[in-house]
C-alpha cells in the first residue's frame, strides 16, 4: 500500500490537471450544447502564445523588445499567464462566430465544425511555430525537485496542482456567487429564460466561449511544461477532456471534477502496474461508467441526445 | 434539395448514368492517370477510400449514426489481412475474408455497446472505442508490431477458377480494387433500397415513428454498424496489400475524422454519390493542391469549415443545385405541384 | 371484458401526478372518444396505452392479454396503431414509402438486405390501397414535405392504418384543420369505423359528439365522467364546464 502512495499522489495531481482542462470544456458544453473538439487546440494556442511572449519573439529588435527581455523571467511568466489566455479567448470568440450558422441544427454540425477548426488551428501552429517539440520556460522558483515523505517530487507538479485547485475554486465562485454566473447557469438550462431576463443570448454565448477558451489557454500554459509542446498536443489533450465530461455527465461542474480525479487516479494506479497501458485505463473507465449510466455520473437529459 | 431517401422520384437515367460513368472512368484509369500527370498508385488509394467511404455512409448518412472512430475497422481489416498472410497462409481470398470478418466481429461487439445510445453520446462512444483499438494496436507489440506495425505484407496472387494472376504491379492491384469498388457500389445501392435499408432511413428520419411501426430500432442500428465495419474491413485488407504493411496510424482519431470530412464535403448527407465525390475532392486537394503549397491541409480544413457552416449538403448538393438552375432536374414538376397545392 | 382495457393506471413525472387511477374500456367496433381540457393528461394517457411511457401502476389488456410493460414496437406488432398530435412522418421519403414502412408485409421482410422495395408491385399496391382510403393516392410519389397541412394530417392517419391494426388510436386528428378538411375527416372516420376499433382524443366537441359511441372525460388525471354523447350532454358537470357548452352550441 505504501508503495502505491506515490502513484496515488501522482494520480491525484494528474486528476487536478485534467480537471483544469475539462473546466472550460464542460462550461461550453453546458451553456452552448456544443462539444468543442477544438478545445485542445485552444489549449495549445494558449501555450504557444505564452512561448512567444516569454521569448519576446514578437517584439524583435525594437527598444520595447530589449526592455521586455531585461525583465525578470518571473515577471514575464506572470504576464504570459494573463496574455496567453486572453489571446486564446479571442481565438475562441472567432470560433464562436463561425459556429453561429450551426445553432438550431443537429449537434453533429457543431462537432464537425470544431473538428475542422482543430485541424485548421493545428496547421496554423505548424506554420507559425514549426513542427518540432518545444519547451516552455518556467521560473526557477517553481522548478526543480522537492522531497516529500522520502520521495523525490517535481516542484512544478505541486505548483500546477495547487494552481488548478485555485482556478477551479475561482470558477466555482464565479458561477455560484456572481450575477454573471447565475445568467450563465440559466443559459445552460433554459436559453428562453436568458432572453426573458433581458440578456442578449448571442453576447452571452460569445462571452462564455471566450471564457472557456481562456481557461483552455490557461490550462495549456500550466500543463505544457509537464507534457511538452508540439502542434498535435491539442488532439492529445482534447481526448481526456471529453472522456472526463462524458464520464462526469455532460454539463455538470462537479461531475467533471469527480470524473477528472477518477481518471487521474486510474491512470496513476494503472501506471504503477502496467506503465504502457496507463492511458488505456481512461477508455476502459469511460466504457464501464457509460455502460451502466448512459448519461455519466451526474448527467441530466440534454438536447445533445437528439 | 435532393435527399438520401427520395430515390423513387428520380429517373432511371439519374440512377444508372453515374454508375456507368464510374465504371468507364475506372476501367480506363490506368491510361488517363499518367496522362494527366498522376500516378497509378493514386488510383488504388482512391478506390480503397471510396469503398471505405461508401460503407461508412451507410452508417453516417443513411442511418444518421455519427461514428467518429471508423478508422479502427479499416485498421483491423488491414491487421487481420497481414496476420493471415504471416501466420495462416499466403492467400488473397483468405486474407480479405479475415479482414472483413475481423472488422465485422469488432463492429458487432462495439455495436452492441453503443446501439442504444443517441446523438452526441453515440459519437463520443465511437471515439472512445476507436481510441481503444488504436491504443491496443500500438501497445500489443507481439501481435501488431507496435508503432511500426506489420511490415512486409505480401501481395498474394489472385486465384480464380484455377488461374493465377500476379498482383505485384500497381495496375493489377488497381483493377482488383476497382472490381471491389464497383461491387461495393452495386451492393450498397441494392442495400439502401432494400427493406432493411429503407427501415434504416426511416429510423434516421423519425425514430419514434419507426418504433410505433413495429421496428426494433437498436437491432437495425447494430446491423448497420456491423455492415459498415465489414466494408471498412474489406477496404483495410486492400489497404494492407497496397501499402504492404499495416500500422496504427490509420486507426487514429485524425484518420477517423478524415473519413467523416470526406463524406460530408462530398455530400454524403444528401446523396448516394456523396462519399465518392468527397474522396475524389480530398485526393485532388492532397495531390494537386499539395503540389502547389505545403499548407494544403489548412486550406482543406478551412473549406470543410465553410461547407459545414454554409453548405452542409456538400458537393453533391451543389452539383444538384447547379443542375437545377440549368433546368435539367426531373424534380421540378414535383416542386411545381407542391406550390399549387 | 372489453376489447381493450386499462385498469387503475397511475403515472407520475417527478412529483407531478399526471394520471391518477384511470380506468378505461374500449369495445370492439366502436368509436370511443377522450376529451378534457389542455394538460388534463389525455396525450400522456395515449403514450401510456401505446407503450411510449411505462405506467407506474395498473394493467393494460388487449383481447384479455396483458400488454403493460411492453415496448412500443411489441405493442405495435400486436395490432395497436396510433397517430400523433404533432405530426410524425418520414419527411425525406415519398408519401407512399411512409405508408409502406408501416405495412405488416413490409415488416416481415425487414431483414431482406437486397430485394427492391419500389419495384415490388404487391407492396406498392397494398400501400396505394391505404393511400386511397385517406384520399392521397394521387400524391403517392411526392415527397411527404410537399403535402399541405391537411394532407399531412391524412397521411398521419394513413401510416397508422397501414399497420392493419386491431385498434386505432388517433391523437387530435382535427387539430389545425379547417372546416372543410374536418368534414372530410369525419367522413373518413365514418368509413373506418366499419372495419376498425377507434379511440380518439379530440378538442372539437361537435366532431366528437357526432362520431363517438362512448366518451370519457379526463380532468386532473382522472376520469370524471363517462357515457354516450347523449348521457354526457345531460351530465350536469359537463354541461356547466366549457367543454359541454362547446358541444351543445
Structure write-up:
- The complex is a heterotrimer of chains A (306), B (341) and C (249).
- Chain A is mainly alpha-helical and 306 residues long.
- In chain A, 72% of the residues lie in helices and 3% in strands.
- In chain A, helix 1 (5-32) runs parallel beside helix 6.
- The mean pLDDT of chain A is 84.
- With 341 residues, chain B is mostly helical.
- Chain B has one domain (12-326).
- Chain B has 15 helices and four strands.
- In chain B, the strands form two sheets. Chain B has a two-stranded antiparallel sheet.
- In chain B, a hairpin with a 2-residue loop joins strand 2 (158-160) and strand 3 (163-165).
- The longest helix of chain B is centred in the last third of the chain and has 27 residues, at 217-243.
- Chain C has a six-stranded mixed sheet with strand order 6-7-8-3-9-10, with helices on both faces. In chain C, strands 2-1-4-5 form a four-stranded antiparallel sheet, with helices on one face.
- Chains in contact: A-B, B-C.
- The B-C interface holds B 3-9, 187, 190-191, 193-199, 201-202, 205-206, 208-217, 220, 334-335, 337-338, 341 and C 50, 52, 71-73, 76-77, 81-82, 84, 88-94, 96-97, 100-102, 104, 106-107, 109-118, 139, 141-143, 146-148, 151, 159, 163.
- Largest interface, C-beta within 8 A: B-C, 37 and 45 residues
| Annotation, overall tally of beta strands of chain C | 10
Pairing-aware structural class of the strands and helices of chain C? alpha/beta
Helical proportion of chain C?
A: 25-40%
Strand neighbour order, sheet with most strands of chain C: 6-7-8-3-9-10
The coarse overall form of chain C would be globular
Number of helices of chain A: 12
Query: Shape of chain A from CA axes?
Result: globular
Count of helices of chain C? 11
The SSE string of chain C, one letter per element, is EEEHEEHEHHHHEHEHEEHHH
Helix and strand composition category of chain A:
mainly alpha
Largest sheet, spatial ordering of strands of chain A = 1-2
Main sheet specs of chain A: 2 strands, antiparallel
Amino acid at each position: 500500500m505504501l508503495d502505491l502512495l506515490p502513484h496515488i499522489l501522482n494520480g491525484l495531481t494528474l486528476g487536478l490537471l485534467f480537471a483544469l482542462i475539462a473546466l472550460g470544456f464542460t462550461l461550453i458544453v453546458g451553456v452552448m450544447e456544443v462539444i468543442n473538439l477544438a478545445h485542445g487546440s485552444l489549449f495549445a494556442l494558449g501555450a504557444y502564445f505564452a512561448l512567444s511572449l516569454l521569448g519576446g519573439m514578437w517584439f524583435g529588435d525594437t527598444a520595447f523588445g530589449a526592455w521586455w527581455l531585461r525583465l525578470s523571467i518571473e515577471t514575464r511568466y506572470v504576464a504570459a499567464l494573463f496574455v496567453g489566455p486572453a489571446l486564446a479567448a479571442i481565438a475562441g470568440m472567432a470560433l464562436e462566430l463561425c459556429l453561429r450558422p450551426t445553432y438550431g441544427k443537429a449537434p453533429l454540425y457543431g462537432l464537425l465544425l470544431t473538428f475542422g477548426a482543430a485541424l485548421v488551428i493545428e496547421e496554423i501552429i505548424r506554420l507559425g511555430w514549426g513542427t518540432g517539440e518545444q519547451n516552455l520556460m518556467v521560473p526557477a522558483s517553481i522548478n526543480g525537485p522537492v522531497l516529500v515523505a522520502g520521495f523525490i517530487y517535481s516542484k512544478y507538479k505541486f505548483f500546477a496542482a495547487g494552481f488548478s485547485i485555485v482556478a477551479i475554486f475561482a470558477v466555482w465562485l464565479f458561477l455560484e456567487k456572481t450575477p454573471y454566473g447565475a445568467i450563465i447557469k440559466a443559459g445552460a438550462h433554459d436559453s428562453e429564460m436568458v432572453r426573458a431576463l433581458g440578456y442578449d443570448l448571442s453576447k452571452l454565448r460569445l462571452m462564455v466561449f471566450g471564457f472557456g477558451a481562456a481557461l483552455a489557454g490557461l490550462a495549456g500554459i500550466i500543463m505544457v511544461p509537464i507534457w511538452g509542446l508540439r502542434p498535435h498536443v491539442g488532439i492529445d489533450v482534447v481526448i481526456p477532456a471529453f472522456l472526463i465530461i462524458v464520464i462526469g455527465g455532460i454539463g455538470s461542474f462537479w461531475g467533471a471534477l469527480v470524473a477528472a480525479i477518477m481518471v487521474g487516479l486510474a491512470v496513476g494506479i494503472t501506471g504503477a502496474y502496467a506503465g504502457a497501458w496507463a492511458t488505456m485505463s481512461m477508455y476502459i473507465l469511460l466504457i464501464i461508467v457509460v455502460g451502466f449510466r448512459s448519461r455519466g455520473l451526474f448527467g441530466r437529459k440534454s438536447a445533445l441526445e437528439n | 434539395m435532393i435527399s438520401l431517401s427520395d430515390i423513387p422520384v428520380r429517373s432511371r437515367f439519374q440512377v444508372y448514368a453515374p454508375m456507368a460513368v464510374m465504371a468507364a472512368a475506372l476501367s480506363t484509369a490506368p491510361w488517363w492517370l499518367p496522362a494527366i500527370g498522376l500516378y497509378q498508385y493514386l488510383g488504388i488509394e482512391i478506390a480503397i477510400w471510396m469503398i471505405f467511404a461508401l460503407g461508412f455512409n451507410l452508417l453516417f448518412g443513411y442511418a444518421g449514426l455519427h461514428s467518429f472512430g471508423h478508422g479502427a475497422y479499416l485498421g483491423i481489416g488491414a491487421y487481420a489481412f497481414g496476420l493471415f498472410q504471416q501466420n495462416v497462409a499466403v492467400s488473397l481470398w483468405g486474407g480479405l475474408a479475415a479482414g472483413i470478418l475481423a472488422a465485422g466481429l469488432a463492429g458487432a461487439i462495439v455495436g452492441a455497446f453503443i446501439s442504444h445510445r443517441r446523438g452526441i453520446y453515440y459519437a463520443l462512444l465511437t471515439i472512445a472505442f476507436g481510441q481503444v483499438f488504436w491504443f491496443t494496436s500500438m501497445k500489443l507489440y507481439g501481435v501488431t508490431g507496435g508503432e511500426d506495425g506489420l511490415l512486409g505484407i505480401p501481395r498474394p496472387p489472385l486465384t480464380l477458377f484455377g488461374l493465377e494472376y500476379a498482383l505485384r504491379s500497381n495496375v493489377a492491384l488497381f483493377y482488383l480494387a476497382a472490381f471491389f469498388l464497383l461491387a461495393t457500389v452495386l451492393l450498397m445501392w441494392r442495400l439502401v433500397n432494400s427493406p432493411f435499408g429503407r427501415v434504416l432511413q426511416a429510423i434516421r428520419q423519425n425514430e419514434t415513428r419507426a418504433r410505433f411501426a413495429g421496428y426494433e430500432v437498436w437491432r437495425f442500428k447494430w446491423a448497420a454498424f456491423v455492415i459498415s465495419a465489414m466494408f471498412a474491413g474489406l477496404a483495410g485488407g486492400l489497404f494492407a496489400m497496397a501499402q504492404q504493411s499495416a500500422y496504427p496510424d490509420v486507426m487514429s482519431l485524425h484518420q477517423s475524422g478524415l473519413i467523416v470530412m470526406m463524406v460530408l464535403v462530398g455530400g454524403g448527407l444528401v446523396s448516394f454519390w456523396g462519399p465518392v465525390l468527397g474522396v475524389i475532392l480530398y485526393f485532388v486537394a492532397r495531390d494537386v493542391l499539395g503540389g502547389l503549397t505545403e499548407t494544403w491541409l489548412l486550406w482543406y480544413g478551412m473549406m470543410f469549415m465553410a461547407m459545414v457552416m454554409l453548405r452542409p449538403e456538400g458537393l453533391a448538393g451543389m452539383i444538384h443545385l447547379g443542375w437545377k438552375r440549368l433546368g435539367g432536374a426531373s424534380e421540378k414538376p414535383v416542386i411545381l405541384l407542391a406550390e399549387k397545392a | 371484458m372489453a376489447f381493450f382495457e386499462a385498469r387503475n393506471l397511475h403515472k407520475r413525472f417527478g412529483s407531478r401526478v399526471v394520471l391518477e387511477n384511470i380506468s378505461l374500456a374500449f369495445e370492439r367496433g366502436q368509436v370511443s372518444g377522450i376529451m378534457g381540457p389542455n394538460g388534463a393528461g389525455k396525450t400522456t394517457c395515449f403514450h401510456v396505452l401505446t407503450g411510449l411511457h411505462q405506467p407506474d401502476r395498473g394493467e393494460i389488456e388487449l383481447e384479455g392479454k396483458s400488454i403493460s410493460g411492453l415496448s412500443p414496437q411489441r405493442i405495435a406488432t400486436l395490432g395497436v396503431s396510433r397517430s400523433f398530435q404533432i405530426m410524425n412522418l418520414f419527411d425525406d421519403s415519398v408519401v407512399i414509402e411512409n405508408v409502406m414502412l408501416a405495412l405488416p408485409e413490409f415488416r416481415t421482410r425487414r431483414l431482406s438486405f437486397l430485394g427492391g422495395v419500389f419495384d415490388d408491385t404487391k407492396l406498392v399496391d397494398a400501400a396505394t390501397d391505404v393511400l386511397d382510403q385517406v384520399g392521397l393516392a394521387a400524391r403517392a410519389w411526392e415527397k411527404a414535405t410537399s403535402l399541405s397541412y391537411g394532407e399531412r394530417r391524412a397521411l398521419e392517419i394513413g401510416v397508422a392504418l397501414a399497420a392493419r391494426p386491431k385498434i386505432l388510436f388517433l391523437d387530435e386528428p382535427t387539430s389545425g384543420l379547417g372546416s372543410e378538411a374536418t368534414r372530410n375527416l369525419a367522413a373518413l372516420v365514418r368509413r373506418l369505423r366499419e372495419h376498425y376499433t377507434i379511440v380518439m382524443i379530440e378538442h372539437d366537441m361537435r366532431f366528437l359528439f357526432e362520431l363517438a359511441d362512448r366518451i370519457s372525460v379526463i380532468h386532473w388525471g382522472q376520469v370524471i365522467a363517462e357515457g354516450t354523447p347523449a348521457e354526457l350532454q345531460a351530465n350536469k358537470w359537463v354541461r356547466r364546464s366549457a367543454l359541454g357548452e362547446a358541444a351543445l352550441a
